[in-house]
């Protein structure tokens, strides 16, 4: 068969063909098992008002169903990089002509099943009503307050955006008020928790990052006793600065920070050897490695 090929270019005043497929396997040409008739679904195409945006959305609504199939050319797999050009070929056997047409925005739309928005809103409103009735006692409200609340919900659904409605639902969820069921549930869970009294008692005595101290002390040395802060086994490892003091001016202090070498003269000025041995030098040694 000889075929004449005719290529049609894209025209701004006409909408090119839209190519889409059902990812769920839905067959729009399937017969109704009861009526034995092919029920054609309703197809709606939405385009952006601004033609420069080139946004397109396709909605296929099967008859007598609360599920519709939605797809667009700017979400999902359409956002991936595309390195090819799609064309649509239509063959007319009578005229033996093959027409090659460009498709809309060079995108193949994937149709995903979605529950119709009206059904979702109705179920959400019923759920919010039951939720609010469970968390607050509506019987305590007056008839005027009940009517006012009902009218506010209707106006919110009618005029507010979906973002505002979801934000209001979150606010209501955060401010649930008194909930006796939740209180009893938490009380039962807390009663099942095993508490170790000995561990709580030991933790209450020893606080983290607080050295031993004496609140009744009258001198600085008694307020924070060094003998309790530094363990007995650590005293021998903290004698390097004390040995440095014994060498007087011949000691080499290059291996120590400036704040250590600048304070050696103060430690040498102490005449009481007992006070030196009690550990003033032990306070400077740990700071060297801090």
Could you outline the blueprint of secondary structure elements for this entry?
Blueprint: E1 4-7, E2 19-22, E3 42-47, E4 56-61, E5 67-72, E6 87-92, E7 97-102, E8 108-115, H1 117-135, H2 143-159, H3 162-174, H4 180-191, H5 197-205, H6 220-223, H7 226-229, H8 240-246, H9 258-261, H10 264-269, H11 273-288
Parallel strand pairs: 1-7, 2-8
Antiparallel strand pairs: 3-4, 4-5, 5-8, 6-7
What are its keywords?
single chain; 290 residues; alpha/beta; 8 strands; 3-stranded mixed beta sheet
What can you tell me about this protein's structure?
- It is found in: Nucleus, Nucleolus.
- Keywords: DNA-directed RNA polymerase, Nucleus, Transcription.
- Residues 121-145 are annotated as: Disordered.
- This protein has eleven helices and eight strands.
- Mean pLDDT is 72; it is low at 126-137.
- 38% of the residues lie in helices and 16% in strands.
- The chain is α/β, with parallel strands linked by helices and 290 residues long.
- The radius of gyration is 41 Å and the shape is elongated.
> What's the helix-strand series?
EEEEEEEEHHHHHHHHHHH
The count of β-strands is 8
User: Percentage of helical residues?
Assistant: 25-40%
| Class per helix and strand makeup | alpha/beta
Note the beta-strand portion: 15-25%
Keywords: DNA-directed RNA polymerase, Nucleus, Transcription
Main location: nucleus
Subcellular location: Nucleus, Nucleolus
Pfam family, one: RNA_pol_I_A49
């Amino acid at each position: 068969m000889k075929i004449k090929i005719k290529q049609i270019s894209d025209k701004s005043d006409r909408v090119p063909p839209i190519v889409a497929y059902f990812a769920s396997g839905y067959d729009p040409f399937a017969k109704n098992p009861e009526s034995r008739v092919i029920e054609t679904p309703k197809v709606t195409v939405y385009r952006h008002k601004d033609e420069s945006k080139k946004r397109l959305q396709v909605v296929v609504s099967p008859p007598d169903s609360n599920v519709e199939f939605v797809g667009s050319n700017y979400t999902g797999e359409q956002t991936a990089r595309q390195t090819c050009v799609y064309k649509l070929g239509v063959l007319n056997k009578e005229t033996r002509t093959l027409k090659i047409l460009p498709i809309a925005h060079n995108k193949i739309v994937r149709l995903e099943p979605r529950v119709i928005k009206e059904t979702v809103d109705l179920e959400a409103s019923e759920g919010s009503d039951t939720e609010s009735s469970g968390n607050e006692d509506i019987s305590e409200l007056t008839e005027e307050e009940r009517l006012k609340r009902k009218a506010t919900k209707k106006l919110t659904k009618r005029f507010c955006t979906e973002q505002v409605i979801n934000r209001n639902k979150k606010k209501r969820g955060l401010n649930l008020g008194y909930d006796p069921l939740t209180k009893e549930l938490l009380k039962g869970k807390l009663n099942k928790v095993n508490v170790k009294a000995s561990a709580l008692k030991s933790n209450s005595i020893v606080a983290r990052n607080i050295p031993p101290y004496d609140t009744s002390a009258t001198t600085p040395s008694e307020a924070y006793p060094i003998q309790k802060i530094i363990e007995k086994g650590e005293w021998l490892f903290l004698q390097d600065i004390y040995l440095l003091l014994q060498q007087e001016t011949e000691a080499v202090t290059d291996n120590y920070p400036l704040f250590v070498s600048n304070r050696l003269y103060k430690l040498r000025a102490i005449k009481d050897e007992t006070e030196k041995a009690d550990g003033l030098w032990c306070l400077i040694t740990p700071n060297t490695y801090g």
